[in-house]
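step=encode ok
step=design start
structure_in=
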């Protein structure tokens, strides 16, 4: 009988641990947001720095903090990683709650202090797959689930982008885009004029999805700030020039990046 009581006690402890973990895993937030940042070698070191500074400035901006506080739960969960090829993904910080200025300031400092290192190739599909993985293993339950992808070129390596995009949409994960349409970068040989249309048709999707094109680097910090405010769910009094992902009009080939790479990879051989 004593042995039986010990067994019951042991099982009860296990159940309490499991229940506690489930409660933690289900902690509610308004949004679980993945920031996926392109660090492919098509961008210079100075442009990588602009990206870092732009995200840091946006996360701690008063408009973003105000938007967070106005949510139903008054908090969001954010994680950030950098990507290039599908085999290169580097975490900047893991899942972190933002509820107030101190939380945001701490994340901004992490972003600024973590060095950005450029890597080869561009796998948007790999970034989406990583975003899905992060959301599915998040310790927070978001009313909305969002992957936020910035990049300066089309997918040219790894899985085709539509397959990854559709996998995210099937899991009710929205994908928003920040296409960097800046000409004259180190990877100009892979430049795509209609990158915003490519992002609209091939990358973004899901409820309320949108893109914010960036045509020059001086627009970047403001674009990130406004994009975060809209993703959190509070309407900006001066909304960004977003392009709805479901909009019609001109379309593009979703495998154009792979085709461009095959035509122009000789320009990068030996680099």
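sequence_out=
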């Amino acid at each position: 009988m004593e042995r039986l009581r010990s067994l019951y006690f042991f099982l009860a402890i296990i159940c309490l641990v499991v229940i506690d973990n489930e409660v933690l895993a289900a902690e509610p937030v308004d949004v679980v947001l993945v920031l996926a940042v392109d660090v492919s070698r098509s961008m210079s070191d100075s442009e990588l720095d602009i990206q870092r500074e732009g995200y840091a400035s946006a996360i701690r901006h008063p408009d973003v903090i105000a938007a967070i506080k106005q949510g139903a739960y008054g908090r969001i969960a954010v994680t950030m990683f950098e990507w290039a090829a599908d085999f290169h993904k580097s975490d900047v910080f893991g899942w972190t709650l933002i509820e107030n200025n101190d939380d945001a300031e701490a994340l901004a400092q992490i972003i600024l202090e973590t060095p950005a290192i450029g890597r080869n190739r561009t796998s948007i599909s790999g970034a989406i797959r990583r975003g899905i993985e992060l959301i599915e293993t998040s310790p927070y339950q978001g009313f909305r689930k969002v992957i936020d992808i910035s990049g300066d070129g089309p997918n040219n390596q790894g899985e085709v982008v539509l397959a990854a995009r559709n996998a995210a949409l099937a899991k009710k994960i929205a994908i928003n885009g920040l296409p960097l349409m800046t000409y004259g970068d180190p990877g100009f040989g892979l430049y795509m004029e209609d990158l915003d249309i490519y992002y609209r048709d091939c990358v973004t999707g899901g409820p309320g999805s949108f893109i914010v094109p960036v045509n020059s680097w001086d627009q970047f910090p403001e674009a990130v700030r406004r994009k975060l405010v809209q993703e959190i769910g509070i309407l900006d009094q001066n909304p960004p020039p977003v392009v709805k992902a479901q909009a019609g009009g001109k379309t593009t080939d979703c495998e154009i990046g792979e085709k461009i790479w095959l035509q122009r990879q000789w320009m990068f051989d030996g680099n």
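step=design ok
step=annotate ok -> Residues 28-268 form a domain with the Rossmann fold fold (CATH 3.40.50.410).
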